[in-house]
Amino acid sequence: MTWSRLSDDYTERMLDVSDAAFRLDIQATVWCNRLLTDGRVLERRLPHIWPGRNDLEQLAEELVEAGRWMRDDKGYLVDWVDQEQSIDVKARRAANTERQRIHRKHKGGDHSECNPRYCKSRNAVTDSGTRSVTDSVSNRTPSRPVPQGTGKGSSADMCPLGHPPLDDSPAYCALGHRIGDEE
Tens digits of per-residue pLDDT, 8-65? Predict the structure, then answer.
């Protein structure tokens, strides 16, 4: 569905035309919006806008003289500045059709085209998937490497258990093992 827009100064711009021309302008705007003609009214289509009216050509000329409509070789162009272009209406309708198609698939249980950012069903992880992930996770403290010295020498400068020598007694480690002794 389209909407016809009238600016808040519309009635002021129409002060110089008759009530019938005023009505024809509104009816033509609504008609053009409904049929997506972008404001084009073929002369032979005037009777479709206001059936039963015999003076439509004179009213259309009154709107041309007032600057509301323009004449071209096939008919008239309605002032279309405040209205939405047909290409925009068609694009919006196509986007709405696609959105509704995806929504219907979603409601039917098919989440293949759902946006994972918004679809809870597409993001759901099954119990078996959750279990396999959490089974491999542990909260144990990670192992730490055994110190390999103080950086002052080679591994020969350590006790048999791999402890570095004391600073004040390089022949012994902190546990009292003699450096260079074998187990």
Answer: 999 999 999 999 999 999 999 999 999 999 999 999 999 999 999 999 999 999 999 9
Phi-psi sector, 180: left (phi>0), alpha (psi -120 to 50), beta: left
- In terms of pTM, does the model score above 0.90? no
Unique residue bearing structure tokens 């249980």: 109
- Is the pLDDT at 129 greater than 60, yes or no? no
